[in-house]
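Researcher: If convenient, please comment on what follows.
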Amino acid sequence: MRATRWVVGLGIALALVSPTAAQAAAFPVNPGPAVAGRTIIGSGQNLPPISNSTYNVGSYMAPQVEAYYTGQAIQRDRSDVALAAWRFVRDWTRDRCGAAPEQVRDCKAMVVFDVDETLLNSYTYSLAQDPQFTFNPTTWTEYVDSCGYSSIPQTRDLFNRVKKLGVSIALVSSGNRDTKASMVSCLNARGIDGWDRYIMRGDKDPAASSAEYKALARESLKRDGFTIVASVGDQVSDMSYGHLKRGFLMPNTMYYIH
């Protein structure tokens, strides 16, 4: 669930990587001390943290964000990160579990996916807001209920490829559990189904940051015997505080979640 507070100004303008400077090759991202010693692979397009809060980029950066999302750069970046994730998961499971899907299943190898801006794209929601690229809880609930999302083909294909490999899949979302039925229906309608776990936050641990909540969710999956080979998300908080082998950061220049 995304917070209502949004910040605009020079700080974000400097933080946002412009589309003209986008690098199409995935490369390691420096996530800071929260995940010291962990490798995160990304496109370099994610907004870096400027505070301990959630923010939406707002209308100030709308032209740059729109150019990135409607051009080819974001497609290249998504493809590069998804390919890097596939190669890592394939090689890790082959080396430690075996090549047969039943061997991988027995090995309890798992990939964790975030949902918003990872499997499903809400760009049309952010573009339609007034001001653009801000957040309103009422319009957001309407958007979710109506399945306004499109799928993100690169991560949808990654999801289906690792599932075919025999890897277990968990969806870990900060979304409110009240929207779970709508989200499941929307994911299915967009060609995404067959996961093993779908964990949504609801009102659990309200004082915890998204990064802390998601780390606790991964820790609970590890206690169930799973090895989390990769966490795929659009925020560094999707892969902070460990309990995974490697993180893969999909591009999102619309908002940042701590």
